[in-house]
Design brief:
There is one protein chain. This protein is an alpha/beta fold. The strands form four sheets. Strands 1, 2, 3, 4, 5, 6, 8, 10, 11 and 26 form a ten-stranded mixed beta sheet that branches. It has an eight-stranded mixed beta sheet with strand order 14-15-13-12-16-17-18-19, sandwiched between helices.
Length: 682
């Protein structure tokens, strides 16, 4: 059972008391300030409580609950639900991918909870006839009102989400609910998406559930959110032109009834609606949370800002004070051993010279510093000296920023020497890569530091299931899979290509990202250049090795580094997007963010094989070797790739960085515990 609460002290007790004894209960609280959690502890002391650090909306709460219920089917319940005896058994007995019960009011009167797929005609019919009258005619009404339809089990398009059982098979196949809706329509979108993917919703009248409800019928603000989200669902499913017609039909409905304050508020909301609803946490919620200190594996000032620690912590900074410490390195660059030795030293010196800055004007809580490191990790006394030096600098900045006792997030293993003696609220090891596989590092030393973090961290966050499973013996139940996200609003395709890309003839076979010699298979890229002389191979990114080998190919265009802000426009010009990774231990345990960025742009992707890409095999073509890779590129140039651009984008729409950041905060701030238990301590 996953129950999302917000200021629910008056109803949650009755909900919990109605649940069977043989179920696991997960209560996700969206930063309530009343006695909700106290009531949970009193009524259901064995419930798992997930304390969301901010009110991120109903869908975000459900997703946190589903994450806490890993491996299980989930019955999602509103806090004002009361289960009648036998309801759970009846829902499970259907064997359906998604099952919904008969909803009744406290007086036993049936609720009209079943729905048909939203259409413009149905919205127009409801506007002119009213929902009840229009619902008598399937073509004209979305709400199913015929009593006979509530007497027998059958498949429905969707149903109101006060109570619905979702099997693990569906959750694994479709991923999380779309958190952009904040409140209302998230179940509409999910159930319609499930039906389109071959997972129909089944109504079971033998499962009877009492629903108190009714707040949306009296609250102008909630009615306005519901109304606007009807338009948003239609836009995401059918495009902007269809959404404009839906907006007109919905606006007509609210306008015809504008004497009612609820409809009048909704009409104003439609006239001023933004692309997505924006909800911000209360000041009291933001003030009571800890600050965050992150030791990044990258440098904000010269690495691609798409990296996960940047994306996660900049969103945490919307709710908490954050200090991001730029990479203190895995090794000292040395002549003869490191590529571009002088350039690396110079850019790090420039980064150190920036001292402490707030690089995001819209996020004043986000601070970045680069300490002066001495990254010699081969000798114990030099490691000790470096840790003392870096720690002193970090402590001084934390004191100046009044950060108190922070939650520490370490992405780079060399941070262990620095953070070990530091006072901290909790320690999370963001295990984004196996850094001991980095070829230029002192691998035995880095491996020892990784082992310390794996053993001593309060939580270990993985982006690779393969790596998580390999290290299960060291981490146990402290391990948590936190998938990479993608900024779906940033990565939108555009027809306005940058001038330098537009001047390159098509078709364009492209790659954007860091061109690192320990990640990218440059031999494979050269073969692509040879095999497709009629196409242009476009590479966009900072290179850590010489690119002179491509000078002899007139169809190869290396455009060097482009900023994060520019990347979507460049990617929009690719006909085929490449993930040409080396077959090594680093890639085996990687989960490239690039894959989701490509898909968010709707691009046709061809990739070499590695464990995490298999989850996207329906929208990404995967090659086991060079020959197959070339063949798949040729096939993609011919047929445009698997599925449509829109379907490829839809595959990652729910993978937002905002939801990932909230999940990180929930782990850091003492959630996923039994009711009444103590949060993570120092």
């Amino acid at each position: 059972m996953v129950i999302v609460t917000y200021q629910s002290e008056k109803v949650i007790g009755g909900c919990l008391a109605s649940l069977p004894d043989d179920v696991r209960v997960v209560v996700v609280d969206n930063a309530s300030t009343d006695r909700t959690l106290a009531v949970v502890e009193e009524v259901s002391p064995t419930a798992v409580v997930v304390r969301n650090p901010v009110n991120a909306g109903f869908a975000a709460g459900v997703n946190l609950g589903v994450a806490a219920a890993e491996g299980h089917d989930v019955l999602v319940l509103n806090a004002d639900i009361r289960l009648r005896p036998g309801a759970v058994e009846a829902l499970r007995a259907t064997g359906a991918a998604i099952a919904v019960p008969r909803l009744v009011g406290p007086d036993g009167a049936p609720h009209h909870s079943l729905r048909r797929e939203p259409t413009v005609l149905r919205a127009l019919g409801e506007a002119l006839l009213g929902g009840g009258r229009a619902g008598r005619f399937p073509a004209l009404g979305e709400t199913v009102v015929a009593a006979r339809e509530y007497e027998h089990p059958h498949v429905v398009d969707w149903a109101t989400g006060a109570a619905w059982l979702v099997t693990r098979k569906v959750l694994d196949a479709l991923g999380p609910l779309d958190e952009r809706y904040f409140l209302y329509s998230e179940e509409t979108e999910y159930m319609l998406r499930a039906g389109g993917a071959g997972f129909p919703v089944r109504y079971e009248p033998r499962a009877v559930v009492e629903h108190i409800g009714g707040e949306v019928r009296t609250s102008p603000r909630l009615w306005s959110i519901l109304t606007a989200n009807r338009v948003r669902v239609h836009r995401e499913r059918h495009g902007r032109a269809a959404a404009a017609l839906m907006w007109l039909a919905v606006a007509l409905n609210e306008g015809l009834r504008s004497r009612d304050p609820r409809h009048r508020t909704a009409l104003r909301g439609l006239l001023t609606m933004t692309e997505w609803p924006a909800e911000t946490p209360s000041a009291t919620t933001a003030e009571r949370g800890p600050s965050y200190l992150c030791f990044s594996a990258q440098d904000w000032w010269y690495h691609n800002q798409a990296h996960s620690d940047f994306q996660l912590l900049r969103r945490v900074a919307e709710h908490r004070k954050v200090l991001l410490v730029n990479s203190i390195g895995l090794r000292m660059p040395l002549p003869g051993r490191s590529t571009q030795f002088a350039r690396r030293i110079l850019r790090k010196a420039r980064s150190v010279a920036k001292l402490v800055r707030r690089p995001l004007p819209d996020t004043p809580g986000f601070h970045v510093m680069t300490p002066l490191p001495l990254p010699f990790y081969g000798k114990p006394w030099l490691r000790k000296l470096n840790s003392v030096l870096v720690r002193a600098q970090v402590r001084a900045v934390c004191l100046a920023l009044r950060m108190g006792t922070p939650a520490v997030v370490a992405t780079i293993p060399t941070a262990w020497d620095v953070v070990e003696p530091m006072k901290r609220r909790t320690l999370l090891f963001n295990r984004s890569d196996r850094h001991s596989a980095f070829p230029e590092s002192d691998q035995s030393t880095i491996r020892a530091l990784e082992d310390q973090l794996l053993s001593r961290s309060d939580r270990v966050l993985y982006v690779s299931r393969a790596l998580q499973e390999e290290e299960r013996g060291l981490t146990g139940d402290r391990a948590h899979f936190l998938d990479h996200g993608v900024d779906v609003d940033h990565f939108r395709r555009t027809d306005e290509l940058p001038a330098d890309l537009a001047s390159i003839p098509g078709p364009r076979i492209g790659f954007f990202g860091s061109l690192d010699d320990y990640l990218v298979d440059f031999d494979l890229l050269e073969r692509i250049a040879v095999e497709f002389p009629e196409a242009s191979l476009v590479m966009i990114g900072d290179a850590t090795c010489s690119m002179e080998r491509y000078d002899k190919y007139r169809n190869v265009h290396w455009l060097d580094f482009r900023s994060y802000a520019q990347i979507p426009a460049y990617g929009s010009g690719f006909d085929v997007a490449l993930m040409p990774w080396l077959d090594n231990d680093w890639i085996k345990h990687a989960n490239p963010i690039k894959m989701k960025e490509y898909l968010a742009l709707g691009l046709a992707v061809v990739s070499t094989d590695f464990p995490e890409v298999a989850r996207y095999a329906d929208v990404v073509r995967i090659a086991p070797d060079h020959t197959a890779f070339v063949d798949l590129v040729r096939q993609t140039l011919s047929d445009g790739g698997p599925k449509t651009p829109r379907e490829r984008r839809e595959a990652v729409l729910t993978a937002s960085w905002d939801s990932r950041a909230l999940e990180l905060m929930a782990l850091a701030e003492g959630t996923h515990t039994a009711a009444g238990s103590t949060p993570c301590a120092e």
